[in-house]
Amino acid sequence: MQPAVPDPLPRNGKLHLAPASSDAPIGVPARKNGAMSQPSTQGVQHAQPSVGSIAAHRPHTLSAAVSDLDPDIDADLDPYDEDGQVGHDGQELPQGRFLDRERSWLAFNERVLELAEDPNTPLLERANFLAIFASNLDEFFMVRVAGLKRRIATGVATRSASGLQPREVLELIWNRSRELMARHAACYQEDVASGLADEGIHLVRWNELTEKEQSRLFTLFRQQIFPVLTPLAVDPAHPFPYISGLSLNLAVVVRNPVSGHTHFARVKVPPLLSRFLEASPQRYVPIEDVIAAPAHLAELFPGMEILEHHMFRLTRNEDLEVEEDDAENLLQALEKELMRRRFGPPVRLEVEESIDRNVLDLLVRELKISEAEIYPLPGPLDLTGLFGIASLDRPELKYPKFIAGTHRDLAEVESASAPDIFAALRERDVLLHHPYDSFSTSVQAFLEQAAADPDVLAIKQTLYRTSGDSPIVDALIDAAESGKQVLVLVEIKARFDEQANIKWARKLEEAGCHVVYGLVGLKTHCKLSLVVRQEGDALVRYSHVGTGNYHPKTARLYEDLGLLTAKQEVGADLSDLFNRLSGYSRRETYRRLLVAPKSLRDGLVSRIEKEIQHHRAGRPAYVRIKCNSMVDEAVVDSLYRASQAGVPIDVWVRGICAVRPGVAGLSETIRVRSVLGRFLEHSRVFAFGNAGEPEVWIGSADMMHRNLDRRIEALVRVTDPAHRATLNRLLETGMSDSTASWHLGADGNWTRHALDPEGQPLRNVQETLIDARRRRRGTAKP
């Protein structure tokens, strides 16, 4: 039975809402869009690969390409006085008006799972969504659950904005994640694996292999797997080994035939080996099955009797805590903290449901983990390995291929070689929409042209995440080596990219770039480029302000916006902001920027309040927001006040959302939608009716405490009327009832709307944008 959130009833002249029940379902209508996160792919290895190919790096699925899960994961602990907040009518806003953010995040990951469960999703994309779900949940436990447990243990946890006590939130997470993980496993076992088998791609277990396949894999095991395995015994002379986070492990029980004593041993599946091995063409077996084959365990424990074996996987707290005020050298402090991260306390234990109770008791005792944190599942564990399967070259089982073209405003300024970006920007601003507009022929070309141009004197750049073979970094190095002044602000605390960013910071320094790490206590998350060019007697500044990272690979998977402009007020703003980041400056106001942590929240709230005045006066008024997360209570309360005044409000959110839409007397004019699909919806847009002169902003900030209080974020005001109209059309399309999306109800449940009343598919906003670009290039499908 689904508990309902009661309609708010007047009590003592005030409006009250009950907090969401901790066991309330999160909606079960049949995608990181966050964390939907799209990872870099890993290879699926053949039966007898070379040593080099079998050891091909299996990328951590939470690294650069995946981790704008960083979008939703960080803790929001900043105080907000919920009591006493006044609504539009002068009455206090009701208690329980915020949805629980952890429950909302789990609902987001359920939407990812629903795309994996959807039979209309191409099969290999379904496998990809299963891997994304698993990767998302890993990071959720490593950060959010770990942080909540730490705060409970230290006594600093407080009641959440939703009204739930910390322990209630933790139990909600345990119960709901258990249900979702069971659905996830069932979707793999009953739908995706069998569907792939029908298409000739077989994901099998060891006992399903033919004798010939087992023989080939035995040769592979002896030659390339056995030498890197290290069985670790547990006895008085051998303490229980350290179990690293997210590693796959084999618990083996053996008996000494001479003494009759039984012993426990652990074998770690080396993380650098491929997750699935190809036993024969298009037949794949998990590597742990190969290791656990009876003849192979006999090789690992010669002379011993193998009694039983079970797979298990541990998740640890992998959040970072760096006290910057006490760190003389942030780089060294962070490197030390990265080492500590490997030894964080356990937060989840996944085991095969067939595990022997005695073995499980041993694991529980040695790992010091509670029964509530044990997740029995059918094998195989760790379905992030499906990223490799999803990368198979079977285009008919994937979304149709789309290759982005050059933006038309840049393509029109073709020269004999490549577009002249500077000449284009002298003519007009360029509004980019990735991945529909090519990143390589726009932002990347902008920086590469700047690096090669002898008239460019300086380049200033923020880097939050970038790829391992980054052409952006190469361009900056080329610019510095040619004598240009190059300032690079590298955010070395970008979650799960810290090690990569430390490497890039040192490489840039060695090339002569001025590298800084931002301001103490603040992450630098804004996406900014500034190029200073000598043109005659004048210095002209060219700018790029974006919503996404300077990451050429994820720019093909993440939906983002960017503004390229030669407008001098934007260039002056960026100059001032970079001076603040690299030197000593107390500037807090800008011409066309809103910058966190000083002016961004207040700037947005004041504009929302202004829409109330316009609506009262009968002038056009609306608020439209597109973001990854909407949980900041001050912003949400401003939306409630505007809704109480009758202002139409649309919120297009990818991940978590604390807004309760459609509540009588509180949020009747608020609609909340979520769109997930082949691309990660990642752009942030803020549009206001402004009495018929629409005001539109784009930038890097989500509506979270961490973005608005603990980060350097920047929004830029879009002034070109055509660009404002384009962005408003985008928002209208995403919010339209004729567009496929999930709708949020006042009770916190999301309902999928994918079909019209006649059972026909609703418009897919991403496919609509793809088709528009194809038509523009004359390559549209008939």
Protein architecture, described:
Belongs to the polyphosphate kinase 1 (PPK1) family. Its cofactor is Mg(2+). Catalyzes the reversible transfer of the terminal phosphate of ATP to form a long-chain polyphosphate (polyP). The protein contains 22 helices and 29 strands. Helix 3 packs antiparallel against helix 4 and helix 4 packs antiparallel against helix 5.
First and last CA, distance? 47 Å
What does the main sheet amount to?
Answer: 10 strands, mixed
Helix content: 25-40%
- Mean pLDDT score, rounded? 85
Report the strand count. Answer: 29
How big is the Rg?
Answer: 27 Å
* Number of helical elements: 22
Structural class: alpha/beta
Strand content: 15-25%
Outline type: globular
- The parts where pLDDT drops under 50 for at least 5 residues are 1-72, 320-328
Task: Fill in the keyword field for this structure.
782 residues; alpha/beta; 22 helices; polyphosphate kinase activity
Topology at a glance:
Blueprint: E1 10-11, E2 14-15, H1 51-54, H2 70-73, H3 101-117, H4 123-154, H5 166-198, E3 202-203, H6 211-225, E4 231-234, E5 248-255, E6 262-268, E7 276-280, E8 283-286, H7 287-291, H8 294-300, E9 305-316, H9 330-341, E10 346-352, H10 357-367, E11 374-377, H11 386-390, H12 408-411, H13 421-427, E12 430-434, H14 443-452, E13 456-463, H15 471-481, E14 485-490, H16 498-510, E15 514-516, E16 523-524, E17 527-535, E18 538-546, E19 558-565, H17 568-582, E20 593-596, H18 600-616, E21 623-627, H19 633-644, E22 649-653, E23 670-674, E24 680-681, E25 684-688, E26 695-699, H20 705-709, E27 711-718, H21 721-735, E28 741-744, E29 750-753, H22 765-777
Parallel strand pairs: 3-8, 10-11, 13-14, 14-15, 16-27, 19-24, 21-22, 22-23
Antiparallel strand pairs: 1-2, 4-6, 5-6, 5-9, 7-8, 9-10, 12-19, 13-17, 17-18, 18-19, 20-27, 21-25, 23-28, 25-26, 26-27, 28-29
Helix pairs in contact: 3-4, 3-5, 4-5, 14-15, 18-19
